[in-house]
Amino acid sequence: MRTAFYISDGTAITSEVFGHATLSLFPVDFNHKTIPFVETEEKANEIKALINATAAKEGEKPFVFFTFVNHNLSEIIKSADAVAYDFLSTYSEKIQKELDVAPVPKMHRTHSIHEKSYDFRIDAVNYALMNDDGGNIKNFSEADIILVGVSRSGKTPTSLYLALQYGIKAANYPITEDDLESEGLPKCLLPYKHKLFGLTIDPERLAAIRHRRMANSKYASIRQCRIEVREVEMLYKRHKISYFNSTHHSVEEISAKILIDSNLERRKY
Amino acid sequence: MRTAFYISDGTAITSEVFGHATLSLFPVDFNHKTIPFVETEEKANEIKALINATAAKEGEKPFVFFTFVNHNLSEIIKSADAVAYDFLSTYSEKIQKELDVAPVPKMHRTHSIHEKSYDFRIDAVNYALMNDDGGNIKNFSEADIILVGVSRSGKTPTSLYLALQYGIKAANYPITEDDLESEGLPKCLLPYKHKLFGLTIDPERLAAIRHRRMANSKYASIRQCRIEVREVEMLYKRHKISYFNSTHHSVEEISAKILIDSNLERRKY
């Protein structure tokens, strides 16, 4: 399998995301290797040797997606036996012309603690943890959004993703059988109806997930899952709560959907 | 402030990461707008109208970073009054020549539930939550890594990031004053010494973080923080545990550092 390297003087997250997205357009498997924090010429030469050894072993040139602030490091990596792409610089030249402003490359400008949103993101993670699974309903006034849904419909990973990536304070609250029986919203949610977003999931998938947690229980039975899902969807409709079926979607997709539907601003940069 | 749009038929995460990284090379502020799930010509025309209205209002063309699987949608966005970059296609042509394989664009190939690593990532999130703050030491045999450190040194957000982004099962365990007094590693950690990774933090920063949690307590005092930090670093050295000072680093940077130092494979794609 051909190797693809993602290399940078920072986290290499940008190289990784861009390189992987580009390569995934092709029906070919790659061996992905991320190498962050290549900050000295010595280290760059070491990585060049690794790339060359990989080329020799695999009999074809590895792909290399790289970004460096220091031009000398770029030159070292470019001289390796590889198909190497300095992908940011292609567009930075175009943008320089458009803005009529010269680029001022700085170390660790992205994915660092210096991004304005960083403290928001860490606060939001702590908030999501403290307000997971209905943990602390007195904090709901602070929430940007409150995810609701039956047990194991995807609320927790989604809350954490919204917090970590976007600095959104996402609480989550489980809708229980008692709530479903009464057909009303739990009292503690009533003042925050405008912040609610519902998750639902196909009963078969829900049963499989619950089964892994508590095998052969009533909780995991397909009958129980069908009842809960049908009733929770009725609840959403009755109270005009936006909702989304998470069955075939990743936390990234569910989160993007929630942000756009709820018109929430990402605290990202 | 000039607007930068990140637009896609999927989550638009790739556009966002690439566009933001490119623009951040310039000392200019932008108004960032992400628009995911533009999946129909009707929706694309609606977004085109929004871009045009933004151009008219701001008196300069917005930047637009976009990716679409459907060529017709690309054409609609390209025809807007903007500086628009179809940034993946630039490289996909080069890579096609190199691979001698035609691209097969598919919807939602990245950041979706169809990525091989998706189930790993969700399992790892559940693992990180269950094993947060020494929660469940009987599961340590399953851990890929166990983060240790004094209270509030950054263990929890880092564990969650490693899990969500990379599918790494990261437990975390707080080193308490009792542990520091005895100068030994907590017994439950002894069998897993090879999995330990320490976090440390400057005492001033630690005191500020603890102060927000428990103002004017002994726990948050600078004296207490200095003692704990000095002793925990001695503990790491005594037991030859790799460690990293998190003070000036983001969870992205801390995670990248841990992965490369511990030689852990990312379960990412």
TrEMBL record, chains A, B:
Keyword line: Kinase, Nucleotide-binding, Pyruvate, Serine/threonine-protein kinase, Transferase
Residue sites binding ADP per the record: G149, V150, S151, R152, S153, G154, K155, T156
One Gene Ontology term of the molecular function aspect: ADP binding
Which domain of life does the UniProt lineage start with?
Answer: Bacteria
The record ties this protein, via InterPro entries, to: Kinase-pyrophosphorylase (IPR005177), PSRP (IPR026530)
Q: What is its EC number?
A: 2.7.11.33, 2.7.4.28
The protein's annotated catalytic reaction(s) are: [pyruvate, water dikinase]-phosphate + phosphate + H(+) = [pyruvate, water dikinase] + diphosphate; [pyruvate, water dikinase] + ADP = [pyruvate, water dikinase]-phosphate + AMP + H(+)
Q: Does the keyword Transport apply?
A: no
Question: What function does the entry list?
Answer: Bifunctional serine/threonine kinase and phosphorylase involved in the regulation of the phosphoenolpyruvate synthase (PEPS) by catalyzing its phosphorylation/dephosphorylation.
Tell me its family: Belongs to the pyruvate, phosphate/water dikinase regulatory protein family. PSRP subfamily.
- Record protein name field: Putative phosphoenolpyruvate synthase regulatory protein
